Amino acid sequence: MSAGARLNAVLVAPGATAAESALCYAAAVGGGALGTVMAAGAGLPPWSVALLALVGFDLVGGAVVNATAAGSRRFHGPGRRDGHRLAFVAAHVHPFVLALAVPGYGWGAAALTYGLVVAGAVAVLAVGPPLRRPVAHAATALGVLAALVVAPVPVFMAWVAPVLMVKLLLGHLLPGGREP
Q1: Is there a domain that residue 5 lies in?
Q2: Taking a C-beta distance cutoff of 8 angstroms, is the pair 71, 176 a contact?
Q3: CA 53 to CA 28: how far, in whole Å?
Q4: Residue 24 included in any domain
């Protein structure tokens, strides 16, 4: 397997089609570009701009990866259990990294966002498969609302909580990308 194929298997998923990979990378680049533009437009220091570009790349690209058939096989295939999925969600400590590096994004907003995502994941995984999709949508809708209203963040950061919740609660926790 070539180095490019190995990298694609890590960044997208093993066995991703060319179309899936292209869509994932296009979305990731778009997310990175928008994160860059918003951060630079807010006059943030270069390290904050770079971090928001990377977070935009990861969250937007990851949201699309999680919706592909290849991503679904990776995260919902044989040997993958709810514990693996919850650990993946919990490992997304992006809000705390952003609180460290981005002026104007506070610890309260970071803790609220992270807590809402992890609590939403626990709620989704606590119910049986027939209820996971509606619980994930409820957790995402309520989480986005709470994240935007309870601990307001600067406008250039308003996208982080919603995209993180879409990536993890609607994408990662729900098998997707299957043909009807």
Answers
A1: no
A2: yes
A3: 10
A4: yes
What is the total count of domains within the chain? Answer: 1
CA distance 140 to 134: 10
pTM: 0.94
Question: Which amino acid appears at position 32 of this protein?
Answer: G
Radius of gyration (C-alpha) of the chain in whole angstroms? 16
Question: Where are the strands (E) in the chain, listed by range?
Answer: none
Determine whether 32 is exposed, middle or buried from the number of CB atoms within 10 Å of its CB (0-12, 13-18, 19+).
buried
CA angle (141, 136, 80) in 5-degree steps: 150
Domain span including residue 28: 15-172
**Closest by alpha carbon to 176, among 84, 92, 88, 64?**
64
- What's the mean pLDDT in 21-36? 97
pLDDT digits (tens, 9 = 90+) for 104-162: 999 999 999 999 999 999 999 999 999 999 999 999 999 999 999 998 899 999 999 99
- pLDDT for 177 equals 54
Domain membership flag for residue 177:
no
Q: Quote the tokens at residue 77.
A: 């295939």
| Neighbour-count burial for 80-107, b at 16+ CB within 10 Å, e otherwise | eeeeebbebbeebebbeebbebbeebbe
